[in-house]
Amino acid sequence: MPAGENLTLLTDLYQLTMAQAYFHEQRTGTATFSLFIRSYPPDRGYFVAAGLQDALDYLDNFSFDGAAIDFLASQKLFSADFLDYLAALRFAGQVWAIPEGRIFFIDEPVIEVTAPIIEAQIAETFIINQIHLQTLIATKAARCAHASGGRPVVDFALRRTHGSDAGMKVARASYLAGFAGTSNVKAGRRYGIPLVGTMAHSFVSSFEREIDAFRAYVTSFPANGILLIDTYDTVAGAKNAVQVAREMAGRGQKLLGVRIDSGDMAASAFEVRRILDAAGLIDVKIIGSGGLDEFELAQLTAANAPFDSYGVGTKMGVSADQPWFDIAYKLVEYDDRPVLKLSAGKSSWPGRKQLFRVQDNHGRPQRDIIGLRDEELPGERMLKKVMGNGKLTARSPTLPELREVFAREFAGLPESIKALRRPSPLPVEFSAKLKALREESAGKIA
C-alpha cells in the first residue's frame, strides 16, 4: 500500500451499515472483540503471531478523511448525521495482544480490542486481514526454516505473491520467522531485511553460450557472483562454472556460489559438489531453489544433500498447502455484559480474557490456560496491553528484536509440536471461572 494512504475505508460495507444502525439506535457502549483461530489445518501444530504492528498502526491513524466521507456520501446509502459522526471519529480504545514472534495455539485470543462498539466493529476487517496473512506466512516460513536443518533460507516469493502488499508482508513475516533474507528490494529498504539474489535463466539464454553469460555476470559482480547452472544441463553448467572460477582465481577473485533450480535436487547437488571439490573449489557454495517447501526441504535434509542455503518462493509466499486459517473476530462483551456465539462449529467464549502459559523448570511450555482477564492463574500472562485510550503504550519492537523473540520461543518448543506431519499441539485448557461464565451466559440466551 502506498505510504501515507488512508486505510480506514479498507473495510467491508456491512461494518459501516452496522455502524450506522448502532449510531441511530444510540448503541455506542463499550465492546470487546476477541480474535482467535478455531482449528488446526492439516499438519499444523502451532501458529506464529505476526501482523500486530500493522494493526496497531491502522488503529493509531484511524480516521475518515474528507475524501473518504465524500465517497461514502456519493453512495447515497448513509445519512448526513452519521457521516458527520464518522468525520470526527478516532479510535479511543485499548488493545491487548500476544506479541509478534510468540507461538500460540487454537482458541487462544491473539488480540482483544475494547472500544466503543462502532470503532471496534469497523476495525474488524483490517485487523483480520493483517493478522491472518502475516500469521499464515510466518507459520509457513517457520516450518521451512526448521526443515532446512540449520541451512539459511531466503524469500524468493515476490513474483507470485497475491499482490504487491502481500509481497511486502511475506518478506517481513518470513524474516521474522527465521528466514535469512529476501529478494524483494523494496522490503529490504522498508524493513531492513538483507537482500539476496543471483540471476535468472533469461540472462543465461540471452547469450549464445552459457559460459559467456557466466563471464559477463562475474565481471559485474566479482565479489559476490552466484551462477545459475541448470538452464541447459546442470553437470555441464557446473563444469562451465569451474572454468569461470579458475579464470577469476587468475585475477585474484573467488566465485561465491552456484544455484540449482530444477531436476533431481539431491542427486544434482551431490554431483555438483563432487565436480566443484575435484576442482579444488571446496569453498564455492551450492544454493537450492525451485518449488521448494518444508516437505522438500526436509527430504533434502534427511538425504544430507550438500546445499549450503535455499531460496524458497511460491509455496511459502502463498502458503500453498494451507492458504487460509479459520480465523475469527467475535464480540465477547458489550456494556459489561458477557456475549458469546453458540452456532454449531463456530461457538465462542465470553468475556475479556488472558492467556496463561505454564512452563517447566527449563522454560519449556507444558500447557496453556485461557482464563478471564482479572484471574490469577499460574504461568506467564501472554496478552500484553499494547494500546490504551487510543494511544500506543510502548515502543514498537524492531524487526530484528522480533526475530530474536521468535528464535527463543521456537527453540523451546518440543519437537512433537514442531513436527511437519501429525504434530502434537500444546494442551490448551479453559479456566473453571471461564467455563462457568460460558455456561451462565448460554443459559441466559436459552
Description:
With 446 residues, the chain is an alpha/beta fold. It folds into two domains: 13-138 and 327-445, Alpha-Beta Barrel (nicotinate phosphoribosyltransferase), CATH 3.20.140.10; 143-317, Alpha-Beta Barrel (TIM Barrel), CATH 3.20.20.70. It is 40% helix and 18% strand. It has 17 helices and 19 strands. It has helices spanning 13-24, 52-60, 66-74, 80-87, 117-122, 124-147, 164-176, 185-191, 201-205, 210-220, 234-250, 265-278, 294-302, 314-317, 399-411, 415-418, 432-445, and strands at residues 30-37, 47-48, 94-97, 103-104, 111-116, 153-155, 181-182, 226-228, 257-260, 285-288, 309-312, 327-334, 337-338, 353-359, 365-372, 380-381, 384-388, 391-392, 428-430. The strands form four sheets. A seven-stranded antiparallel β-sheet has the order 13-12-1-5-3-17-18. α13 links the parallel β10 and β11. The model has no long low-confidence stretch (mean pLDDT 96).
